[in-house]
Design a protein that fits this description.
Helix content is about 50%, strand content about 5%. It has about 750 residues and is an alpha+beta fold. InterPro entries: Adaptor_Cbl_N_dom_sf, Kinase-like_dom_sf, MLKL-like_MCAfunc, MLKL_N, Prot_kinase_dom, Sel1-like, Ser-Thr/Tyr_kinase_cat_dom, Ser/Thr_Kinases-Pseudokinases.
C-alpha cells in the first residue's frame, strides 16, 4: 500500500526484499569456467570423472590465496589467525598432494561420499576465511558480543575442519594435543589483548555502550559509493540528494571577539584566517573547488562529505563544511592554535613525556582511519596540527586519498620519500599502498618527533632509496638525560624499530604500537605535572652527537607460489551435486522443487547459507513444505554462524510464531546483530524501534537516527522517507527541504 510505513508490525515485504538482495549477493561470487581453469592452471582437457572436482579444487585454491592475503593485511588477533593459517597451510598441502597423486586417488574420485565430503571441505574453508577476516578487523571482532562466542566459533571451526579432513583421508600433522594447547593459548592471549586494546583505544571508535561507532559504518558505505562514481552522476544515490559536503552560510562565519597576530597564517596568498563558527574557533582555508555539476566536482564533494564524518575522532582535524569568504570558496576546519607539529618542534623543544602522549594520540587517530578503511598516505609531522593543549589532529588529506591506493606521481614521491616504506621504494607504482606502508611511515614520524627534524634531512631521493633498501635506517642515538628519561627513550626506541622493519610481515601491527605507546604514556606522562611540555628551542640534547650508534640492520625473506595443476585425469564419473548458486537460480526461475532439493542437499552438508534458504522455504511453504518451528531453528543456526539475513529472519520468526513465546531481549539481540552486520532492513527496523520506543524499549531518538541513517545510506526507502520527514540529510549536517505535497 502506498505510503504505508514498513515497521516492526509490518515486515513481510521487507523480508521479501531482503531475500531478493541476499539472492543477488549469493550469486555474485560465482566463477566462470574460464576463471576456474585459470585458477587451477589446467592445461588441455580433463577426464569426465574429475570434472565435478575441478571447480571445487579451484574454489579451495582461491580461498587459500584469499586467506593468505587477508592474513598478510591482518592488524589484529594475529595469533588466532596464525592458528587458523596452520590449517589453511595443511589444506594447501593436502590439495597439492591430491593433485600429485591423482592416479593413486582414482577410487576416491569415483566415490560419491568422497565428493560430498569435498563439498563440506569447501564450505569449511570458506568459513575459516570469513572468520580470519572478521577477527583481523575491529568491526568484525565486535560482531562477536562475548569472548565466549569467539572461542566457541574458533573451536567449532577446528572440529569441522578436522572432521572433514579425516573424511577425505587428508594427513594432518597438527591434529594433536600439543597443537590444541598452543591454539588455546593463542586464543586466550589474543582475546585478552584485544579486549584491553578496545578498552583503551576510545577515540570515537568504541561508544559508551561498548559497540562500534555507527559513523564508522557510515563512512565505509559512503566510501564505497565514492568508489563507484564514474564519468556521470550515479542515478542510484538515495533520494534527490547528492553526496556532498555540508554547506555553511557565509553569515554564520564571523570574526573572533578578540583578534590575535596569528589570526592570519601564510607567507603569501591565499592566507588562512581564524574565524568563529557556532562559538568555535575555526580556520578558513581557501580552496579552488569547482561549483559545477561535473563528475569530478561530484567526486570531490563526496570525498569532502566523508572527511566531515571523520570528526567523530578527537585526533583528526574536524572539517565542518564549505563556505564563502569574500567571494572565495573556503574549507571550514577546526582551528589549531600552535600550527603543525613540525612548526611546534621547530619553535620549541618538546618534553619527552609529552612526545609519548602525542605519539599515542596520533596512533589513535590512525586507528580510527584504518577502521573506516581509509589510508592517509602522508603521515608526517607537517600533517599533524596541534592545539594549545598539545592535542594532535591529523590533517593533510588530499581528496584522492579517501579512495585510491596508489601513490604515483614523482612530485608525491619526492615529498614523502623520507617517510616511505621500502616496498613502495622498490616498486613505487606497482606496489599498492596498504596498512603496512602506513605503519612504516608512522614509525618514521615517531623518529621525526623524537629528534625534531626530518628523516634523512637534505638527502636526495636516490640516496634515501639506496640507504633504506640496503636495510639501513636513521640513527637512533639519544642525548644524555635523567635516568628516567633515558629509560623512556630506550623503550620508545623499541617501538620505532618495531614499526620500520623491512619485511611487512615482521613489521608491528597498529594494535601493538598503540598498546606499547599506551604503556609508556601511563608510565611516564602525567597530565597534572607542573613541568613544562614545551621548552625553549635547543635546550634538550636530542641526538647526543658525542655518542655513536650503528645503523639498524634487518632482513627480508620471500615465499613461494602454489604449483600448477597441469595434468589430466581419466576416471569414471560420479553424480555431480548442483551448487548452492544453482539452487538460488532455480528459485529465481520459480522452480521451487529443484531449489528445495538443492537447499536440502547442501543443508545436510552443513552449509550455512543453505540452512537459511531451507528455513525460508519452510517458513513460506514453498515446494509444498511448511514448518515454521523448524524454519526458526534453521534461521538460528545460520544466524549464529554470522549470516546477517538469517539473524534478521530469526528475530522476526519470534514475532507471532505459534507455539513459541515472544522474547523481546532475544529479538532485539538478533536484530542488533543483523544491523551491525550491515543488513539495511534490520537497521531500519532497529532505528524505528528506538526512534519511537516500540516493544517497551526506552526511546532513544539519537540512536534511532543513527540506525536509520545507516539504512538510508544503502537506499532503504522507508528509512529515507523518515529522515526526509525529520528534515535530516543522509550524508551530512545540512537540513534538507521537506516535500510539500500540496505543490
Amino acid at each position: 500500500m502506498k505510503g504505508r510505513a514498513d515497521t516492526i508490525e509490518n515486515t513481510s515485504e521487507f523480508l521479501t526484499a531482503t531475500l531478493s538482495m541476499a539472492s543477488s549477493a549469493s550469486t555474485s561470487g560465482g566463477s566462470s569456467n574460464g576463471q576456474v581453469k585459470q585458477a587451477l592452471g589446467v592445461v588441455g582437457s580433463v577426464g569426465d570423472a574429475i570434472k565435478p572436482f575441478v571447480p571445487l579444487i579451484a574454489t579451495v585454491t582461491l580461498v587459500i590465496s584469499e586467506c593468505v592475503k587477508i592474513y598478510e593485511d591482518a592488524q589484529y588477533n594475529k595469533k588466532i589467525c596464525n592458528s587458523l593459517m596452520d590449517r589453511v597451510e595443511t589444506a594447501d598441502l593436502a590439495i597439492r598432494t591430491l593433485k600429485r597423486r591423482k592416479q593413486e586417488n582414482e577410487n576416491k574420485f569415483r566415490d560419491a561420499e568422497y565428493y560430498k565430503a569435498f563439498l563440506r571441505f569447501v564450505d569449511v574453508m570458506k568459513k575459516i576465511k570469513s572468520f580470519i577476516k572478521d577477527v583481523s578487523q575491529i568491526q568484525g571482532f565486535k560482531k562477536y558480543v562475548k569472548a565466549t562466542a569467539i572461542k566457541d566459533k574458533f573451536h567449532n571451526l577446528i572440529k569441522e575442519f578436522e572432521s572433514v579432513m579425516s573424511d577425505l583421508s587428508f594427513t594432518m600433522a597438527i591434529a594433536n594435543d600439543e597443537q590444541r594447547r598452543l591454539d588455546q593459548e593463542s586464543l586466550n592471549e589474543d582475546i585478552t589483548q584485544m579486549n584491553k586494546f578496545l578498552k583503551e583505544i576510545q577515540g570515537g571508535i568504541i561508544e559508551q555502550n561498548d559497540t562500534i561507532n555507527t559513523v564508522l559504518q557510515e563512512v565505509i558505505i559512503m566510501k564505497h559509493k565514492v568508489d563507484q562514481l564514474k564519468d556521470q552522476k550515479r542515478p542510484d544515490l538515495p533520494i534527490s540528494e547528492t553526496l556532498k559536503a555540508t554547506t555553511i552560510e557565509s553569515k554564520e562565519i564571523t570574526d573572533p571577539l578578540i583578534g590575535k597576530k596569528t589570526d592570519c597564517r601564510g607567507k603569501k596568498e591565499p592566507f588562512i584566517y581564524r574565524k568563529s563558527y557556532k562559538a568555535m574557533e575555526v580556520a578558513c582555508i581557501p580552496r579552488a573547488i569547482p561549483e559545477d555539476d561535473s563528475p569530478q566536482t561530484n567526486k570531490i564533494q563526496a570525498q569532502l562529505a566523508i572527511l566531515g564524518k571523520l570528526r567523530d575522532s578527537p585526533n583528526i582535524l574536524k572539517f565542518y563544511g564549505l563556505s564563502h569568504l569574500d567571494s572565495q570558496m573556503v574549507m571550514v576546519v577546526e582551528w589549531a592554535e600552535l600550527g603543525s607539529l613540525r612548526e611546534v618542534y621547530n619553535t620549541y623543544d618538546i618534553a619527552w613525556p609529552s612526545k609519548v602522549q602525542i605519539a599515542l594520540d596520533i596512533c589513535r587517530g590512525i586507528t580510527f582511519l584504518h577502521t573506516c578503511s581509509i589510508l592517509h598516505h602522508d603521515i608526517r609531522c607537517a600533517n599533524i596540527m596541534m592545539t594549545l593543549r598539545l592535542e594532535p589532529k591529523i590533517t593533510g588529506f588530499e581528496y584522492a586519498r579517501l579512495t585510491t591506493s596508489a601513490t604515483t606521481s614523482m612530485t608525491e614521491l619526492t615529498d614523502v620519500v623520507h617517510w616511505l616504506a621500502p616496498e613502495k621504494l622498490r616498486l613505487a607504482k606497482d606496489q599498492p599502498y596498504n596498512t603496512k606502508c602506513e605503519i612504516f611511515s608512522f614509525g618514521m614520524l615517531l623518529w621525526e618527533l623524537a629528534f625534531e627534524k626530518i628523516p634523512y634531512e637534505n638527502w636526495n631521493m636516490e640516496r634515501i632509496k639506496e640507504w633504506v633498501l640496503s636495510g639501513k635506517r636513521e640513527r637512533l642515538v639519544f642525548g644524555r638525560d635523567k635516568p628516567e628519561i633515558e629509560e623512556l627513550q630506550k623503550e620508545y626506541k623499541q617501538v620505532i624499530v618495531a614499526a620500520w622493519q623491512d619485511d611487512p610481515q615482521i613489521r608491528a601491527s597498529l594494535q601493538f604500537l598503540f598498546m606499547e605507546l599506551n604503556k609508556l604514556a601511563q608510565k611516564y606522562y602525567d597530565p597534572r605535572s607542573n613541568s613544562p611540555a614545551l621548552k625553549p628551542d635547543k635546550t634538550i640534547d636530542l641526538d647526543g652527537t658525542l655518542y655513536k650508534n650503528d645503523p639498524i640492520s634487518v632482513s627480508d625473506n620471500g615465499g613461494e607460489d602454489l604449483p600448477d595443476f597441469d595434468e589430466d585425469f581419466n576416471l569414471d564419473s560420479i553424480p555431480e551435486i548442483p551448487t548452492l548458486d544453482d539452487g538460488i537460480a532455480a528459485h529465481k526461475k520459480k522452480d521451487t522443487t529443484k531449489a528445495w532439493e538443492i537447499f536440502c542437499e547442501h543443508t545436510n552438508l552443513g552449509n550455512t547459507k543453505a540452512k537459511y534458504w531451507k528455513g525460508y522455504y519452510l517458513w513460506e511453504g514453498y515446494a509444498g513444505q511448511k514448518d515454521r518451528k523448524q524454519a526458526s531453528t534453521l534461521f538460528k543456526e545460520a544466524a549464529d554462524d554470522g549470516l546477517a539475513d538469517a539473524q534478521l529472519r530469526y528475530a522476526f520468526s519470534l514475532v507471532g510464531n505459534q507455539g513459541s513465546k515472544f522474547d523481546r531481549k532475544i529479538f532485539i539481540e538478533y536484530l542488533t546483530k543483523a544491523a551491525e552486520n550491515q543488513n539495511s532492513t534490520a537497521q531500519f527496523n532497529l532505528g524505528d524501534l528506538y526512534l519511537n520506543g516500540k516493544l517497551g524499549v526506552p526511546q532513544n531518538v539519537e540512536l534511532g537516527k543513527k540506525y536509520l541513517r545507516l539504512a538510508a545510506l544503502t537506499n532503504q526507502p522507508k528509512a529515507i522517507e523518515i529522515l526526509q520527514k525529520l528534515g535530516m540529510s543522509i550524508y551530512n549536517d545540512n537540513k534538507i527541504p521537506i516535500p510539500n505535497d500540496n505543490k
